[in-house]
Amino acid sequence: MRSLITHFVLLASLAANAHGSALCKNHPSSPHWPTESDWQSLNQSTQGALLAGVAPASSCYDGNPLGSDLDCDTVQENWFLSQFHAEQPASIGYSYWANSSCVAPNDYAYDDQKPCQLGGLPQYVLNATDATQVATAMAWANSRDIRVVIKGTGHDLNGRSSGAYALSIWTHHLQRIEFDPHWIRPAFNSTENVAIAQTGNTWGRLLKAASDVNRTVVSGQDGTVGLGGFIGGGGHGPLSSLYGLSADQILQATIVTTDGSILVANDEQNQDLLWAIRGGGPGSYGLVIEYVMRTFPLPSNVVVGNLSLSTQENGTQEASWDGLTTLMRALPDLTDSGLTGFGIGTVSQSKSSNTSAVGRQVDVSMLFYLFNSTTAEWTSLLSPLQQQMAAFSNNQSVQVTLSEPDILPQYLDLFDVLNPTASSCGDISLSSSRLLGRRELNDISHDTVKDYHKRLTTAQIEGKTARLVIGLQGGKGPRNVEDNMRGGLTPAWRDAYLHVLVTGSSIETEGTNPRSALQAAADWTNAHKETVWAEWAPDSGSYINEANPSNPNFQHDFYGDHYSRLLSIKEKYDPQSILYVQAGVGSQDWDYNLQDGKLCRK
Ligand SMILES: Cc1cc2nc3c(=O)[nH]c(=O)nc-3n(C[C@H](O)[C@H](O)[C@H](O)COP(=O)(O)OP(=O)(O)OC[C@H]3O[C@@H](n4cnc5c(N)ncnc54)[C@H](O)[C@@H]3O)c2cc1C
């Protein structure tokens, strides 16, 4: 209560300055941009939490124009590590979304003729340590019509945690974690075994803390990802095919909305907001400070092993596509048997041994895991598939191998297997994805499924590698989530077995600016990938966090028939649209110009 009173006093003193043009969010060349002393007043009212936005690579440029306190060698060594950007207040993992305006010399987009500028990074960052501070900052920005971006780790693949001329709220230091095995669920006569975790935690931290009390949570497979963006988009991982997505586990959230209110959303109050933040898109409705989420028993073991399809030199290309298609069509049944996992298909060119024509072939490596089981069960589930896939192999041109599985006694050991190296960032491709179920995989012919795979794995630049990432993250978990736990997450997840992602576009930054390079890659991706998905799976959708943000049908594809309800919730809690994110709910009315940094109504 005390924090709310303090907060309203602050609101009254700050509201005096309501400005902003009807067309564009406030920016430094507009007459109402806050003065230095106005920014200082925000700093004072947040106990000195305001930082200037700094590009860490500034030290690699003459005179260190933006005042980085890291030396250039350190920046270069760490530039492609996600964790590095997570620890910097303003930096993000995929810098082309910040206009690549001050990148390290080893970045793809580095140009020694270009100066270091802040570009698409925020000018000011609130280093948040409590909800009241966040509420003060949010209301301050709202009353001045200044864009707000939220950064947890900066991992976002679509640049949604940065923005020029925005006030960024960095949640990294909101790291409290508690557990309550008997949490009383409001409006229900029941108790739940929960984790109560603030948004600045990573899944790695939360998994470890949960494991210490003999429980676990539905997380992603990479420990460096943060809670906020992951849950806001849905969040899939090793346990999602069993229990549903991470967003399906949220029982309550504490949320700061754009007017500076600190709201608790659960089954008894602010139910619309709870519904929206359960997978209805991150960074759009308010800043979630804390989640109350279901925990689950730790699996007693994990059985893990590999199935791979490898083509030999001059391999028969067709056999590899037949093997892949056979695998894809088997995955729904295997998921129903309890298997989960993920894999990668790598497409390359070779000469056909039959005709000598140059064509494309695919090599596949799948990691399958099974919980609370035995190596014998794992092998008996996968051996028939191995034989079916190998049946297409002519003259040993394609090899299908099933490894001896290992038994991991601790669930956390799985994450070491999944992440043998530190997680990287900055790779330069725009991906495109789709959620696929039995309708797309089993109810149509083998040859039709094969043909879609071939069409979806072309590369923009001939000869470059395209990849297919196959995730077994759907099935009975998402399908069986109780109605009262479901939120804004696209309904496409409920029928899906697989989340399939394809790469192949090239973001060619040389000789052009990032905005044009991204646009060219997006145009190619829309023409060569989205159109194929739309033909193959018109009634399904895409997982918003790992999808092409320039998809022109994003309302349908990312939100399904939840879009209009989400839009009305967005308009209720963020009527001024200060929380803009690309392909977010309501974003169709706005244009963010990466080059001049302005965010204006269309
Ligand atoms: C290495 C790596 C591995 C990944 N693995 C998986 C995986 O296994 N499963 C999976 O589902 N996804 C995975 N992803 C994708 C991941 O879900 C997204 O990148 C997600 O946006 C990351 O969320 P974040 O909070 O860490 O990132 P950030 O970049 O900090 O934030 C992402 C978005 O969330 C918003 N946001 C962050 N915190 C809050 C908050 N508290 N309240 C409201 N909005 C907030 C931001 O505004 C931004 O729009 C992975 C990504 C990477 C880079």
UniProtKB/TrEMBL annotation:
Domain FAD-binding PCMH-type: 118-298
Record keyword Nucleotide-binding present: no
Keywords: FAD, Flavoprotein, Oxidoreductase, Signal
CC cofactor: FAD
Signal peptide residues on this chain, from the entry's feature table: 1-20
Recorded superkingdom: Eukaryota
Protein's name according to its UniProt entry: FAD-binding PCMH-type domain-containing protein
Lineage of producing organism: Eukaryota, Fungi, Dikarya, Ascomycota, Pezizomycotina
Any Pfam family the entry gives: FAD_binding_4
Family matches, as PROSITE patterns: FAD_PCMH (PS51387)
Family listed: Belongs to the oxygen-dependent FAD-linked oxidoreductase family.
Keyword Cell membrane: no
InterPro entries (alphabetical): BBE, FAD-bd_PCMH, FAD-bd_PCMH-like_sf, FAD-bd_PCMH_sub2, FAD-linked_Oxidoreductase, Oxid_FAD_bind_N
Source species: Bionectria ochroleuca (Gliocladium roseum)
